[in-house]
């Protein structure tokens, strides 16, 4: 995650000049922050679920999603536009990470008892998780390839309209 965020931050000028959209530079910077924070948020949710604290995981997720809507709409209404929406997403992630991380530290790690690791466990976990990681990566690429192609052929505004339409259809279907 740090590698991807660092690549976005360090190569933002190259990306901006190759695409020909100088207005994307601040989005790439904030996008890097978004990647890191959303990863931490997901880690906190999965860790709470791993500790079988589903209520806390749900509460942190609900707090994040509700505040995401409020902050994103609020920043857009304050005339910050698309940058404001991204700042709203990041602000809600910060709130979720602080609340969820604080809860995890207070009630999760402090009360956790350690035990001896059985022999061969690390090898079995690696043997099991590598194919899953590869499959998940392929699924993620497949899931987002359509947006990448629309962006390549049409541009950022086309991706925005396509994504909104796709989300509306997914909402109606599910």
Question: Could you name the key traits of this structure?
Answer:
single chain, 174 residues, mainly alpha, 6 helices, 86% helix
Description of the molecule:
86% of the residues lie in helices and 0% in strands. It is mostly helical and 174 residues long. Helix 1 (2-10) runs antiparallel to helix 3, helix 3 crosses helix 4 and helix 5 packs across helix 6.
Q: Could you give a quick summary of the protein structure above?
A:
This protein is mostly helical and 174 residues long.
Shape: globular
**What is the alpha-carbon Rg in Å?**
19 Å
Mean of the pLDDT scores? 86
How would you characterize the largest beta sheet?
Answer: none
| Helix content, binned percent | over 70%
Count helical runs.
Answer: 6
Topology of this protein?
Elements: H1 2-10, H2 12-19, H3 25-50, H4 54-109, H5 121-153, H6 156-173
């Amino acid at each position: 995650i740090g590698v991807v965020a660092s690549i976005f931050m360090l190569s933002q000028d190259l990306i901006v000049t190759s695409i020909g959209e100088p207005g994307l530079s601040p989005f790439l910077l904030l996008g890097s922050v978004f990647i890191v924070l959303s990863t931490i948020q997901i880690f906190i949710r999965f860790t709470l679920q791993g500790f079988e604290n589903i209520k806390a995981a749900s509460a942190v997720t609900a707090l994040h999603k509700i505040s995401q809507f409020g902050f994103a709409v609020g920043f857009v209404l304050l005339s910050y536009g698309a940058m404001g929406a991204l700042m709203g997403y990041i602000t809600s992630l910060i709130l979720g990470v602080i609340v969820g991380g604080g809860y995890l530290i207070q009630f999760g790690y402090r009360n956790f008892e350690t035990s001896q690791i059985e022999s061969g466990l690390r090898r079995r976990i690696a043997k099991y998780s590598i194919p899953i990681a590869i499959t998940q990566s392929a699924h993620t690429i497949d899931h987002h390839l359509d947006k990448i192609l629309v962006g390549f052929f049409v541009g950022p505004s086309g991706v925005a309209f396509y994504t909104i339409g796709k989300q509306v259809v997914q909402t109606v279907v599910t």
